[in-house]
Amino acid sequence: MEVAATPRQRQRGLMHRELLGKDEGMLMIFPEPQEVSLWMLNTRLPLDVGFFDRHGVLQSVMSMQPDGGEQLYHSPPGTLYALEMNRGWFDHYALLPGSRLKLPYAMTGE
């Protein structure tokens, strides 16, 4: 799992990737809970993104299609983490809103 914690890392995201392994992806960590917007500029793979609050609780999952960055995908307010994975990953593991993401203390401070 790659971590994108800086603005530059989050902006680059999973651009220019040809493939992701079955359980590979990117966890984006934002500086504070907020509504975030993601796009698929230069992203060649269809992805699902899960939006998590500051407690690591999954708020929603969206499917994102490569489109050259034309569409913006907006999270619910209060998003602190966005987990981008291969399309279908959240369904495969039966992760639904209310599921919890467990992170090391260093990433959460809790």
TrEMBL record:
Position of the signal peptide: none
Recorded superkingdom: Bacteria
Gene3D superfamilies registered for this protein in UniProt: Protein of unknown function DUF192 (2.60.120.1140)
Name of the protein this chain belongs to: DUF192 domain-containing protein
Species for this entry: Sedimenticola selenatireducens
Taxonomic lineage: Bacteria, Pseudomonadati, Pseudomonadota, Gammaproteobacteria, Chromatiales
